[in-house]
Amino acid sequence: MSEINLLADKIEQGISKIFAQASEQKSGMWNYALLFNQEKSKTWVIVLFFENKVQLKNSLSNGFCYSVHQVLKNELVLIDKELPISIRFDIGQYPSNETEYEQLLEKHTVTYDTLNNENVQREICSICGHDWGKHKLMGHGNPPQEGWMACPEEDCFCFLTWDLDQRVNKDKFGKLYKDET
Ligand SMILES: [Zn+2]
Ligand SMILES: [Zn+2]
């Protein structure tokens, strides 16, 4: 078995363990896919599927997706701390053929130019390409120190986490948080 296959196996085990625990909660999360194409990207993409849009939107806003994301991330860190992993949420199910697999991978590896430099404020979300400033900042605790963000666009299931200690985005997050309150 190749190194890639061995690693894929370990990641798959991690996902299925967390998936089994999380899917007991009747959120509508019913399926997942582990996507990887060495030639295109070094990032392993995990897509967690929901049956429909309403279930996914609810799970994004009530914190379910966030807790799945955190628990899964912690599990995968045990395999390799430096493992480039991207956890995404979507509606649909496991791709039924190679073309669908590639399309799904492509969809979840696209990143948008965010115009992020000293003088120009970050304007669009690197994941979905929608207005960054309209993304809603959410979290547990009062005031929250970390949490998740979701895009308000109807058919967008973009998901990001934030953390006040992450220096990279601290200012923007700080500002967004203030706008929210
Ligand atoms: Zn969006
Ligand atoms: Zn977004």
Strand ordering within the main sheet: 1-2-3
Oligomer type: single chain
Give the count of structural domains. Answer: 1
On the 0 to 100 scale, the average pLDDT is 85
Q: Spell out the helices and strands N to C.
A: HEEHHEHEEEH
Assign the structural class, choosing from mainly alpha, mainly beta, alpha/beta, alpha+beta, or little secondary structure. Answer: alpha+beta
Q: What value does the Rg take, in angstroms?
A: 17 Å
Query: Using DSSP, what is the number of strands?
Result: 6
Describe this structure in words.
The protein is of the alpha+beta class and 181 residues long. It has one domain (3-180). The chain contains five helices and six strands, in the order αββααβαβββα. The strands form two sheets. The protein has a three-stranded mixed sheet with strand order 1-2-3, sandwiched between helices. The protein has a three-stranded antiparallel sheet with strand order 4-5-6, covered by helices on one side. The structure holds zinc ion (2 copies). One zinc ion binds at residues 125, 128, 130, 151, 153, 156, 158.
